[in-house]
Design brief:
Layout (H helix, E strand, L loop, with lengths): L1 H19 L3 E2 L5 E3 L4 E6 L5 E3 L4 E6 L5 E3 L4 E2 L2 E2 L5 E3 L4 E2 L3 E2 L5 E3 L4 E2 L3 E2 L5 E4 L2 E2 L3 E3 L4 E4 L3 E3 L2 E3 L20 E4 L4 E3 L2 E3 L4 E5 L3 E3 L2 E2 L4 E3 L8
Parallel strand pairs: 1-3, 2-4, 3-5, 4-6, 5-7, 5-8, 6-9, 7-10, 8-11, 9-12, 10-13, 11-14, 12-15, 13-16, 14-17, 15-18, 16-19, 17-20, 18-21, 19-22, 20-23, 21-24, 22-25, 23-26, 24-27
Amino acid sequence: MRHTRLCTYVITLLLLPLAITACVNGVNGSVDVPAGTSVSDASTVNGSVSLEAHARADKATTVNGSIHLASGAQAGAAKTVNGDITLENDAKVSGNATTVNGALSLAAGSAVNGALTNVNGRIEIDGAHVGDGIVTVNGNIRITGNAVVDGGIKVEKSNGNGFFGIHFGSSNHMPRIVIDAGASVNGPLTFERPVKLYISDQAKVAGPISGANAVRFAGATPPAS
């Protein structure tokens, strides 16, 4: 009997680290997933979520805070309300990356296989891949460095039933959309409100453009306004 209890105790101790890494979350405070480890849920309410190099999480979520995926990190989904979402080189989100008030930044070799969406905040895609389109309301968009966006781009109007059914920010802001040399957008470009649209003569846009007149430019830099 004593031997059985000892074995059970030893097995419990051995399994304890696995149980600890199954879920990392909080309410007030940041959550960090160490490099090379895997968790099912990395979440908090008031704080940031960080996945260090080559860490994995089925989902990374917060309400008031940023989400950061270091080089080679992977998440099934990334979602916040007030905060940025940043993917470093070769980081990947297999689902959607969503924020309401925050920037979306994808570095070279990174990917969001689902949709990339926000209401307010810049969107920068530098040599990265988006699998299911970009949606924003007030965000400026810059697509550069041989980036590929499948699913097109949509800028929604500032009222009505839009993103989450709510909209924030000034409707006087005119989003600036730039598709640089070497970048590709496969799918429709749909603009439900006025935008400034600039497309390099060395970019590839495979889809109809509605709601805006594209200004074509040569060289590395689009017009200032």
